[in-house]
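Schema walk-through. Below, the input block comes first and the output block second. Nothing else is stored per chain. Lengths vary across the set, and this one has 372 residues.
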Amino acid sequence: MRGPRTLTRYVAREVLQYTLLGLAAISVILVARNLVRVLDELLGAGFALADLLLLLRVLGTMLLLYALPVSLLFGVLLTVGRMAADVEIIALRACGVGLRELLRPILVLGLAVSALTLRLALDVEPAARREMRAAVGSLVARGAGVEPGRFRRFGEVLVYVDARGGDRLHGIVVSDRRDPERPLIVFASEGRLALAENGSELTLALERGDIHLDQPGSRDGRHVRISFEHFDYALELDALLGATGFQRPQEMSWRNLRYTVKRLRAGQASDKLRAAPIEYELDLQRRLAVPVAPALFALVGLPIGMRRTRGARAFGALSCAGVAFLYYGSQTFFSFLAIEGWIGAAVAMWLPNVLFAALAAVLLARARRIGG
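--- output ---
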């Protein structure tokens, strides 16, 4: 039994090493890509090092759910590919070590990563998304949402600021056409932005200004003018940040998401929903289905990596990208079909797992048959 135990430790160590290497590279790529997209909106807020570190931590936590499975696949493909290129697998088979002994440590690692991914999917990732919304909202409230001399659109509301000093805004113009029957324009000498307690709205606290209400039905073109000393104007944060508002399904805790889906299934929809009902069902199923990916990647990665090739590392990286794209791309495609009403949410999220399980069974059976 010493031989199999030695092999198990050897394979597990190699897979872990390459997995950690892949995790570092994939995390840097994903975090940098998403951080650049966020920074484009936030550079005007007096961005500090503490803000950058916070965003890096939260983004890294959010993306870990997808980086971990792909990193494990990368580790399996490179480990098995290197062993195949160095004729180690042929040597093992000559010594009576079959596919089962090689698969055991890889599958155990896949199940361990699946368990960790399940923990991330249920509560850690949604909590990170909520923290990201709060952090970005705080930065926007400090002035990232508006830039002096430029118009900024918040949905149907257009905001212009002439100048800014610290957290104070000067020369403010707000054009609100959310109600076509009563469009209005607000002029204010100064004001400041603040994040509302619910995290989904910005409050523009205006001082010393006028509200001009158009009267479309008036024959003489009259309009109403109202002067004020203090006026709090609400702006939707969702319109600026895109899908980051209160009660988005991706941000809800597992308990709240289950409760919401239960109410939706019972026909008790809430007015606070910020997405279509199908999206809540899809996210609930996603949190259960995505954690299966690491185990499936382990099963698929072994037979693919066993192909003998000189450029084992290059082949492993390309295969990793192809398999990951196929899995997550199919999830996106089936989710689109569910949103269009062609299939159910559970089918959309679990069908990629079923297809990959079938693919793994075929590839493993072929590898075993070829190996004899």
